[in-house]
């Protein structure tokens, strides 16, 4: 497929703008502890009646920036040419590829696991932080400390083999539903981003997910949901120990110790450690993606750095606090990040104005 060739008039979509600390910062520091990426085939978005490779994107600066980047990166005669071996694109997950509000999906999993395990731990009924989780005390949970989350993660993510943990995640995902949409979390993937992944792959890019989320947690569904193989997930991870199971065979056991925190500066470290190449394109949505975009932008050849701004409370959520949007500890988009995007030519995607369709299950917005 040839990339769309309409001339690009603007580099950024700031005209459309009007959009982790505390509990969730702690969650990212300790919970989202579960890869590496190469190239798969993204699940095909639902059929669309025309040949536009980005049909869920409205015409505008953001869409044009994607097409312009592909043109420059694949033009062998141009100064922005990126050799096929160097065509790497990285994507954050929470808030960039799927819904992250009102709480990161993996955070919901951890809380649900505490409740599921409670009958086997009667001592939890009188001990924090478990007591508040079991009682579903939202206000107390919202004020959990890093130590509280560390205890929750140790109880729900460690002390088992990798196979046991992965199977637990699969079973949970099979029944868990988002409180607002009443749909499986794996349905809440952004169709416009699937289209971008497909377009880049068609033009020779190897795509990787670089997420603050748990590496093993994400690996359990990444192929089915996004077309990323397990080897294409760079994520936060726990230390693993090599042991022998009850049958005498080798197993890998998850320890309650952090191996890599793939958030903030850790994303650049994870990219270098596991991918070994600087990306030519990077997509994020929060302050935790800042260093990943900076690292990408410092390379040579065509570059594309994009940030999703959640400014659509009708179809999804609205939070910043950039552009006067509500503040949040989940996927924080501060004004300083918007200012850096302005200064460095990063593209800010307005979910409200740039996407005519957010999910596969919804109709396009006219």
Task: Summarize this structure briefly.
By secondary structure, the protein is α/β, with parallel strands linked by helices. It has helices at 22-30, 61-74, 105-117, 130-134, 138-142, 146-157, 162-175, 191-202, 215-219, 222-226, 265-275, 290-297, 335-344, 351-354; strands at residues 88-91, 206-214, 233-244, 250-260, 281-284, 304-309, 347-350.
CATH architecture of the largest domain: 3-Layer(aba) Sandwich
What does the largest sheet look like? 7 strands, mixed
The secondary-structure class comes to: alpha/beta
N-to-C span: 26 Å
What is the average of the pLDDT values? 89
**How much helicity do the residues have?**
25-40%
What is the domain tally? Answer: 2
Number of strands: 7
Structural features, described:
With about 375 residues, this protein is α/β, with parallel strands linked by helices. It folds into 2 domains: about 15-105 and about 185-235 and about 260-355, Rossmann fold, CATH 3.40.50.1000; about 105-160, no CATH class. About 35% of the residues lie in helices and about 15% in strands. It has 14 helices and 7 strands. It has helices spanning about 20-30, 60-75, 105-115, 130-135, 140, 145-155, 160-175, 190-200, 215-220, 220-225, 265-275, 290-295, 335-345, 350-355; strands at about 90, 205-215, 235-245, 250-260, 280-285, 305-310, 345-350. Strands 4-3-2-1-5-6-7 form a 7-stranded mixed sheet, sandwiched between helices. α12 links the parallel β5 and β6 (about 305-310). α1 (about 20-30) packs parallel to α6 (about 145-155), α3 packs across α6 (about 145-155) and α11 (about 265-275) packs across α12. About 50% of the residues are buried. Residues about 1-40 and about 45-50 have low confidence and may be disordered.
């Amino acid at each position: 497929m040839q990339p769309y060739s309409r001339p690009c008039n603007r580099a950024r979509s700031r005209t459309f703008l009007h959009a982790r600390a505390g509990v969730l910062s702690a969650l990212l520091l300790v919970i989202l502890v579960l890869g590496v990426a190469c190239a798969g085939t993204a699940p095909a978005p639902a059929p669309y009646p025309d040949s536009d490779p980005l049909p869920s994107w409205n015409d505008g600066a953001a869409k044009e920036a994607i097409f312009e980047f592909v043109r420059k990166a694949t033009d062998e005669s141009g100064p922005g040419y990126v050799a096929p071996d160097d065509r790497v694109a990285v994507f954050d997950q929470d808030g960039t590829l799927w819904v992250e509000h009102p709480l990161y999906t993996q955070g919901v999993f951890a809380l649900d696991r505490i409740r599921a395990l409670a009958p086997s731990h009667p001592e939890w009924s009188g001990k924090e932080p478990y007591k508040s989780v079991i009682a579903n005390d939202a206000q107390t949970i919202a004020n959990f400390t890093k130590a509280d989350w560390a205890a929750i993660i140790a109880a729900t993510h460690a002390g088992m083999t990798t196979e046991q943990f992965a199977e637990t995640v699969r079973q949970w995902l099979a029944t868990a539903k988002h409180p607002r949409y009443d749909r499986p979390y794996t349905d809440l993937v952004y169709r416009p981003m699937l289209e971008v992944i497909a377009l880049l792959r068609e033009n020779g890019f190897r795509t990787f997910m670089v997420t603050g989320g748990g590496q093993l947690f994400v690996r359990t569904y990444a192929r089915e949901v996004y077309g990323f193989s397990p080897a294409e997930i760079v994520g936060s991870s726990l230390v693993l120990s090599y042991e022998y199971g009850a049958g005498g065979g080798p197993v890998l056991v998850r320890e309650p110790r952090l191996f890599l925190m793939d958030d903030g500066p850790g994303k650049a470290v994870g990219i270098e450690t596991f991918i070994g190449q600087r990306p030519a394109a990077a997509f994020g949505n929060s302050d935790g993606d800042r260093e990943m975009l900076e690292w990408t932008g410092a390379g040579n050849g065509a570059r594309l750095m994009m940030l999703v701004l959640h400014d659509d409370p009708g179809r999804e959520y609205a939070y910043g606090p950039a552009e006067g949007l509500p503040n949040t500890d989940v996927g924080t988009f501060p004004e300083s990040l918007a200012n850096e995007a302005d200064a460095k030519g990063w593209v800010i995607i307005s979910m409200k104005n740039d996407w005519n369709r957010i999910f596969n299950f919804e109709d396009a917005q006219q």
